[in-house]
Structure formats: C-alpha cells, structure tokens
User: What shape does this take?
Amino acid sequence: MAPVDPHSYSDSTHPQVLHYSLSLFFHFPSTLINASALLTLSTSYCGSISLDTRSLIIHSVIDPISYYLIPFSLSPPDPIKGSLLSIALGGQSSFIVIYSTTAQSSALQWLSPPQTFNQTHPFVYTQCHPIHARSIFPSQDTPAFRIRYSARLNIPQELSAVMAACHVERRPPVAGEAKLLAGGFDLLWADEGRVVEEFTMEHPIAPYLFAFAVGEIAFGEVGPRTRVYAESVPSVLDAAAAEFAGTEDLIKQGEKLFGGYGWVRFDLLVLPPSFPYAGMENPMMVFLTPTVIKGDSTGAHVVAHELAHSWTGNLVTNKNNEHFWLNEVMSLMIFVTIVYPLFSRPLLLYL
Ligand SMILES: [Zn+2]
Assistant: This one.
C-alpha cells in the first residue's frame, strides 16, 4: 500500500481513474441522488482498488461488458476520510458503481422553497472543496489524481442545472439510458415532467473542483466570456450584473500578467444566501455568495481572487491536500497583482 495523500484512501500502486461518466437522478422530495458512475481506469487491473466515499450507499458494482457483479466492501467510516470502498477487480479496465447519496452527504446543500429568493422551487448546490467530492461519487478524491467527466443530470423540467463544465444539451430523458439505477429510479428516469441536462469536462481537474447547482436559475450577459447566473429574480440578476460588469477587465489583466486564460468560459453563479464561502473557484463557473453584491463593484475583489485560482490551483495544484496552503498563498499573490493596478487601493486592504 502506497498512500498519496493523508486525507485520501487513494493508492499510488493502483491504476488511476481517468474518467467518470455519471448519471444522476435528483429526487427533491427525499433530498437524495440516485446514481450510477462508470469509472474508466488508466489500465486494466487485477486486484483490489481503493476509492474514497463518504455517506454513500453502495448498491452494487458491475462489469460493464458482462454485467456480472464485482465483489466490493465498504469500511466503517473514518471521521475525516469517510469510508474506504474496496473493489476486487478481475482484469477490468472499467466498472460501474450503483449508489445513492444520503442526508449526510457533506458536499450537498438542499434548500426547500422557503430557503430560496423566489420561495417557489427547491434548490441544491455542491461544495466539494476540500474533500467532499467523495460524498457525491466514489473517487480518488485527492489533487494527486486529476479527473475528466461527463454527467447526465435528470431533474424536474421546471428547474435548470448548471455545472462547472461545458453544457452539452438540455433534452428529454430516454427510457433505458439509466437502466442500472437502483430502487426503481431506472423506471422514473423517463417519467413525464423530467428533463436531462448533459455536461462534459474535458480538462483534467482535481476532484474538489467538481460542482453543480439545480434550481430555478436564469442568467444575464456581462462580458464576452462571462454570464452571471442566479435564481430567476430580476432584482438579483440586475444587481449581480452591475456588480460584476468589470469582470472582462480582470480577465484581461490576468492574461497580461500570467498568460492566456485556459478555461474558455468564466461564468459566475450567485447562490442563495446559505452558501458558506465568499466564493469558490470552480473552473468555468465561480460560485459566489450573494453577500458580495454590495452595489459599489467591490464584489469584484472576490471575483478577482477566484479568477487568480484559474492559474494557481486549477491549472497548477498542490501535490495533495496536506499542502493546500500553497494553493491559497500563490492565489493571494496573483490576486493582488491583478487588482492592484486596476483599483490602486493601499496594498494592505487586499490582505
Ligand atoms: Zn482562494
């Protein structure tokens, strides 16, 4: 056994999971996600592979070619790392995990309608930093192992989904495309009133940068590379668009200093007030608390910090979770160099 991270069960002697293909059925009445995940390895493997999980119910592990069951075990939970999912592979290079989230899945924040701006629809969002991605899908949840993924989110048709990824399409669900889901949710997949939103992330990312939100979401354009998304409340969208109108200037300043912006889009998602961080640097779509909208454009400072992570953290990452301070310190330095020429405030006010 050769651990790569004190906060992960990942083992450097095991093949790396290169790609995750996720099918996620959002069941708002029970605030649970019923899911399947096809994991593709860097090479075929004979032996036990270790994955991180937290508060997931693992229903089965399946060979995607023969559909035979693959033996697995789930350890009692460690208070920090969660439970070790050991899967006894017999030469497969990919396998499917059928699972459900639980009320304790720590990356998921479910909001009932009264907890939203419009108070008419529920909302759910993620916060995977630093080690909570494992509570959404079984993973090698360490910056040492970067991932690519595709995701199909099956949601009520009155809602919309966004991800820190490329949006592929919004379409009707197809019967049978999630036939392995447990608990009868394979049959509910194509029910009337459901819709599928598809996304893909082709850039390799650290798992803590996986992110989505589902709710009554709308957007406004604020720049050639930037939309601001928020709950569909005109006053919130208008205030956010005004607060972040200078985002393109920040991106250009960053490019002048550190090279081209590599993530194509730099969208912003303003979440309901319960979002516990000022901002989270999810790639392609920064997540923000509405409390940074002050009406005087100073919320741009939080956006600039998250933009700095586009270079330090999202492109170049600390080796593992033990060294995360490097990520923040380097981003703080880049943040100051981006905003200082634009705003000319005394340097100490940025720290
Ligand atoms: Zn930061």
About this structure: The helical segments are 185-188, 234-243, 247-258, 300-308, 324-343.
